[in-house]
Amino acid sequence: MERSAQDGLPRVLPSLRAPRFVGRAAELHRLTDALARPPAAVLVEGEAGIGKSRLVQEALDEPGVAARRPLAALCPPFREALTLGPVVDAARDARPDVGKLALTPLAGVLRPLFPEWGQDLPPAPEVLSDAGAARHRLLRALAELLDAMGVGVLVLEDVHWADEATLDFLLFLASRRSRRMSLVLTYRPEDVAPESVLMRLTSRPPAGTGYVRICLGALDVPQTAELMSSMLDGEHVSETFASFLQERTDGVPLAIEESVRLLRDRSDLVRQGGEWVRRTLADIAVPPTIRDAVAERAARLTPVAQRVLQAASVLAEPVGPAVLGTVSGLPDDVATAGVDAAVRSGLLGEDRAGRVSFRHALAARAVYDMTPAPDRRALHRGAGGLLRAMTPQPVARLAHHYREAGDTGQWRRYAERTADLALASGDHRTAVGLLHELLTQSDPPAASVARWAQKMPVLAFTGLVGRGDLTRALRRVLDAEVLAPHERAAVRIQLGRMLLHAGEYAAGAAELERALPDLADEPFQAAWAMNTLGSPPGTLMSAGEHRRWLDRAADAARLPMTADQRLALVVDRATALLDMGDEAGWAVAAELPDTATTPEGMMQLARSGLNIANGAMRWGRYDEARQLLTTALARAEEHRYQRLHDMILVTLVHLDWFTGAWDGLPERAAALAGVDEEPLLQLDALLITALLDGAVGAGGADPGPAAVTEGGVGTVEERLRQVLDAGLRRGIVDLPLEPAAALARIRLAEGAAAEALELTQGPADVVARKNIWLWATEFAPVRTDALLALQRPDQARQFVADLAEGLSGRNLPAANAALETCRGVLAQGEGRSIEAAAAFGRAVTAWKRLPRPYEALLAGERRAGCLLAAGDRDTALAELARAQAGFTALGARTDAARVHAARRAAGAPVREVWRGGRRGYGDQLSPRELEVVRLMLTGLTNPAIARALSRSPKTIAAQLNSAMRKYKVTSRTALAVSLTQAGITPPEGHTTAAGPEL
User: Which of 64, 161, 567, 905 could disulfide-link 75, Cβ–Cβ 3.0 to 4.6 Å?
Assistant: First the structure.
């Protein structure tokens, strides 16, 4: 006990002990019980100070858990993340005898993370160019290390501060099928971003894993009294006092502990009747937050102890007392006394290795915030100077300290070294974040910008380019004209690559063309840029201009370069030629080898499979496309090329749409439309969801989990418009072709021929300007229809003649099938029914040969109409019956219903088919459907209608879809027109909505 004189009265001050573990027995049992049955995944969540770390430490002290060799790691609150830093630091601190571990050659990839283990780790493997494959290899290697160390329980605290690579590692560990390692993670749910990878682990527990989620809550009054008593030598605490403190601290253990210590420091605790009580309610002020309590307690310490606390708050990690003294800038003997005083205060604690740190991050933050800014900068500078002497240097921590010290030069140096380490380890995301920050800071040195830009891994940063600050930073340096020619060329090439990867084709191509004059001494870069300019999707150049660029690139490719570089150029040339519909592309593709001897070569071969398959699909060589994609997919899976893998999957989805393999296709397309940070992949998948929903009659339906960066999901028309607009905005001249054609079909079916023609005008201009008539495959038939509907037969004839001339002598199966369809449309529009029926018959045969069954059925339906007009009723009805059966088999309900109605109108004996909605109403709207459509006419959205009628949004969508089927339309706009024509009006008292719902 100590004595204090206050108000002239002697007072006995209690001695305080560390609090006992109180009020968590049930949670501790759940945690240890889960760890006794590995593998387990235990998530411990709760607010700051609630006792997550104490619970985990109590579990680790249990003999059964300790026998499983737990490894505990802590995620620091630093902006600069070292690749897998928390786990790497924990493994390093465990000091394993690496030379005796059973490691495979895979562990060589760990050399950049553990340079001090260089003599014991296997040689470094070859660098992988695919970011996903490199990252996955790194995660496998680190998991192998932990397994070899015998780690049975991996504890990661404060996961809300973990870097992306560490979170990916946790997901990787949790997904391993043969794992025995258990995971224990602590985090604050309020500090986890909704888009965090951690949400995937917390919301979807791994299959086959003992999953336990422990949510720590506040202590009640008896538990508060017990915790207080444990700090006061077990002596009784009055219930009134405990209730008072529990109410003021919300039952948060750390807040209770800090308040008791503060009350003791203030001499506000007295003994009365054999128990500890507060002095008087009126005299005691409990700080409103833990931070305030810590700040007041720290202010009561000596200036020396306060300086030590400030140094500890700046270091923000456990360190030896000598390190703490050095950073504080105090003489050794004075620093030692200050460290002892800070530890005695209870604000700092010592771990089993004798290292000192704040007992809780909140306390560290409170002291850090109350430290004057000049002192903070000086302490950070001191920490940087001390850490620079370490081997290996902790480069991420050095970058952090020099940033906070305001030393921009040193921050740049160590941030770049941290990015280099991330690149060497295969952690491209961390590298991208650091390089992006270096490039976008104010006034970076021009020479450094050139170097940093070249280090940027292009395949890893789509999201950053989309924000625009990176491209603006590079253009600022280019516009300043301070770079040497070779530096200027390097920056322009990298900027062009970034823009192309982000889908900004026109802007990317422009940068590449500007770079060419400075690339005389860089044959590969020059040839690559020329090949890219020869690629048709990127610009509005003509096919002849593209071909000239490709030929220049072929000449440049004869200059000295590596075999892998030459292989990449061959792949690009074959791709561009096939995109133009040039038969020479197949000959170039035939030059590609079957295998390669380097990782980069294998990557290029896998890419070639995807690109050439895309060409084959555009040409209509679907069997060949599928074979190429299957081979490329196997290569991507074998070598873990994740981005390429996803692109192959979405191309297979597109191929299955063409070939009528629609079973399960909506779900596959919707899942791919949700792939993060891949806008072009998402747009292709979103297009397929729209085309499928339009065919199966789900025109207003939500496509499921598809949620893309381009703006979300919506009706068929909204999604098609989204893809069309994205293609126009990004300058990808061939992307709008298919959505424009689909939208034009919808408008033509609604009788809006002028709008249909306008939708196809842009694609027609692109095709004519580029002279690539292969690209007319999708929109040519509907454009011909629209011209005839608008009484423009001369223009229709000229368009079909131009198409025939453009395809003359070319073996382009899909485009030639579309040409036969156009000839049928033209003949039908001019009243030549027999010729039209013959042309549509040839189109049916051509589409089937691909095979492309949906287009074949549409052509067959048109043929039947021509046969009816020519008086051949029996053949026509047989054709219609085949079309209806075919559409039904595909699942194209809208088309099947239309053909069914045509058969009935032609007098065929047909059975009424129920197509949804309540039975008994036939083609009439049910009363509940009528309620919905009348509210729709007011302009309300589906969710608003659902609220008004107390139904679910899914029910509303289903009832609108049923109404669309009954009125034989595929959009809300067309339904509104049909309802108005039928005399259906909005309900009384409602007016049309003037704008979007807020």
Answer: 161
Cα-Cα-Cα-Cα dihedral of 743, 747, 748, 751, to 10°? 180
Residue 177's CB: how many other CB atoms inside 10 A?
Answer: 7
- Is the peptide bond between 851 and the residue preceding it cis, with omega within 30 degrees of 0? yes
C-alpha span between 522 and 568 (Å, rounded) = 15
Residue in the structure block whose two tokens are 């986890």:
192
ω before 666 within 30° of 0 (cis)? no
Buried b (16+ CB within 10 A) or exposed e, 64-95: ebeebebbbbbbbebebbbbbbbbbbbbeeee
Instruction: Point out which residues pair with 348 in neighbouring strands.
Output: 358
CB 855 within 8 A of CB 846: no
pLDDT in tens, 147-168: 999 999 999 999 888 888 888 8
Pairing between β-strand 275-278 and β-strand 269-272 as defined by DSSP bridges: antiparallel
Q: How far apart are CA 979 and CA 226, in angstroms?
A: 72
Amino acid identity for residue 109 in this structure: V
CA distance 704 to 684: 16
Task: Check: CB of residue 786 under 8 Å from CB of residue 748.
Answer: yes
Please give the structure tokens belonging to residue 904.
């009935």
Nearest residue to 605 (alpha-carbon basis) of 592, 590, 588, 617: 592
Q: For 73, how many CA atoms within 13 A lie in the half-sphere containing its CB?
A: 27
* CB crowding 276-296: b at 16 or more within 10 Å, else e: bbbbeeeebebbeebbebbbb
Residue range 34-69, pLDDT digits in tens: 899 888 889 999 888 888 889 999 999 999 988 999
- In the structure encoding, which two tokens stand for residue 494, read together? 């990298």
- Burial (CB count within 10 angstroms: exposed 0-12, middle 13-18, buried 19+), residue 210: middle
Over the Cα atoms of the chain, what is R_g?
Answer: 35
For residues 18 and 14, give the distance between their C-alpha atoms in angstroms, rounded to a whole number. 13
Which letter does DSSP use for residue 115 in this model? G
Pairing assessment for the beta strands 182-187 and 153-157 based on DSSP bridges: parallel
Q: What is the pLDDT of residue 3?
A: 42
Distance CA 1, CA 139 (A): 54
Q: Are 957 and 942 in contact (CB under 8 A)?
A: yes
Cβ within 8 Å of residue 188, ≥6 positions away: 45, 46, 47, 48, 158, 160
Q: What is the identity of the amino acid at 569?
A: L
Among 186, 213, 188, 158, smallest CA distance to 27 is for 213
Cα(509)–Cα(513) distance, integer angstroms: 6
In Å, what is the CA distance from 422 to each residue of 81, 415, 509, 728, 816? 9, 11, 30, 36, 51
For residues 337 and 325, give the distance between their C-alpha atoms in angstroms, rounded to a whole number: 10
Distance CA 460, CA 129 (A): 11
Q: Is residue 527 scored above 50 in pLDDT?
A: yes
What are residue 483's phi and psi, to 5 degrees? Answer: -90, 150
Give residue 746's identity as a one-letter amino acid code: I
Residue found under tokens 């001090």? 116
Beta pairing partners, 41: 183, 211
N- to C-terminal Cα distance for the chain?
64
Whole-number Cα distances in Å, 532 to 569, 604, 859? 10, 15, 38
**pLDDT interval class at 268 (50, 70, 90):** low
Helix axes 893-905, 953-967, angle to 10 degrees: 30
Write out the E strands in 158-261: 182-187, 210-215
The residue ranges of DSSP E strands in 299-395, in sequence order, are: 348-350, 356-358
Compute the distance between CA of residue 409 and CA of residue 432 in angstroms, rounded to an integer.
Answer: 20
Nearest to 303 by CA among 275, 334, 278: 334
Span 420-454, pLDDT tens digits: 888 877 677 788 788 888 888 867 888 888 888 88
- 8 A C-beta contact, residue 169 and residue 84: yes
Yes or no: say if 958 and 949 are a contact pair by the CB < 8 Å rule: no
Here the tokens at position 951 are 């139904």
For the beta carbon of residue 638, count every other beta carbon within 10 angstroms: 11
Q: What is the pTM of this model?
A: 0.60
CA-CA distance, 717 to 714, in Å (whole number)? 8
